[in-house]
Amino acid sequence: MSEQDSRAVHHPAVVAHRKSRAGDVQLRIADAITKFAGSMPFVHLHAVPFAVWMHLLESSP
Fold it and tell me: 16-50 pLDDT, tens per residue?
């Protein structure tokens, strides 16, 4: 595989969109939150406490 094949090549519109979002602090923060909220660590971080909570509710009298 050549070096160019291993790099992602994006459409100029995508590059321009990313560049415009990178210039605004609020958009960078929103992008970071969205990236984390759409990740598996986020799912695990929420699934474990909910599972513990449901287990505790079921075992209480």
Answer: 888 888 888 998 899 899 999 999 999 999 999 99
Domain that residue 49 falls in: 3-59
**Dihedral (CA of 37, 39, 42, 43) sign:** positive
Compute and round to an integer the Cα radius of gyration of the chain: 20
Structural domain count of the chain: 1
Please provide the size of the chain in residues.
Answer: 61
Helices marked H in the chain:
3-6, 12-22, 25-37, 40-59
Tell me how far apart the alpha carbons of residues 31 and 25 are, in angstroms, rounded to a whole number.
10
